[in-house]
Amino acid sequence: MPQLRVLLGFANAPDHSLEETTEAVIAGLYGNPEWPDPPTPPVSKVQLQGALADFRAAIAAQAQGGTAATAHKNNMREVLIALLRKNAGYVQEHCDNNLAKLLSSGFEAVSNNRAQNPLEAPTIKDIRNGNS
After folding, report:
1. pLDDT class for 132, splitting at 50, 70, 90?
2. Do residues 41 and 86 lie in contact, with contact meaning Cβ atoms separated by under 8 Å?
3. What are phi and psi of 98, to 5 degrees?
4. Which of 41, 49, 98, 111 is placed for a possible disulfide with 90 were both Cys, Cβ 3.0 to 4.6 Å?
5. Are 106 and 21 in contact (CB under 8 A)?
6. pLDDT at position 49, please?
7. Peptide bond between residue 42 and the one before it cis (omega within 30 degrees of 0)
8. Which residues, in sequence order, are CB contacts of 57 under 8 Å at separation 6+?
9. Angle between helices 45-62 and 15-29 (to 10 degrees)
10. CB distance 25 to 34 below 8 Å
């Protein structure tokens, strides 16, 4: 059975999706009966909540405009992504290859379905015999 992996697509997601992912991880990883009580991820719940609050404040400040506000928002976004990546590594290592446990953490799993569409049935249009 292939090893389950955490989908890291949240790093390229829009700001509101990154907020939703962070909220899901906060709700799913901490205080979840699927995970040890208390879980021991590298990033604590307080750190993650603080980074999310800073990110939201930076988004609100960016609405006022200015390149400095945009740069600050982007920096807060990178900090939040780095924290989520650390917790994603923890989840991937400690999910015991159990999809339900991985999904209960708030992260999504990478699809391991590599099936492609089946090929169409071949049709023989003509046969050429060479010299015998």
Report:
1. low
2. yes
3. -110, 115
4. 41
5. yes
6. 95
7. no
8. 76
9. 160
10. no
Give the separation between CA 89 and CA 35, rounded to whole angstroms.
14
Residue 24: the pLDDT is 93
* Under 8 Å between Cβ of 92 and 7: no
- What's the chain's Rg over C-alpha atoms? 23
User: pLDDT by residue (tens digit) across 21-77?
Assistant: 999 999 988 877 877 766 688 999 999 999 999 999 999 998 888 899 999 999 999
Query: Given CA atoms 39, 81, 78, 26 in this order, what sign does their dihedral have?
Result: negative
Does 78 score more than 90 pLDDT? yes
> Is the model's pLDDT at 16 over the cut of 70?
yes
Task: Report how far apart, in Å, the C-alpha atoms of 87 and of each of 33, 63, 93, 94, 98 are.
Answer: 17, 29, 10, 10, 17
Peptide linkage before 122 cis (omega within 30 of 0):
no
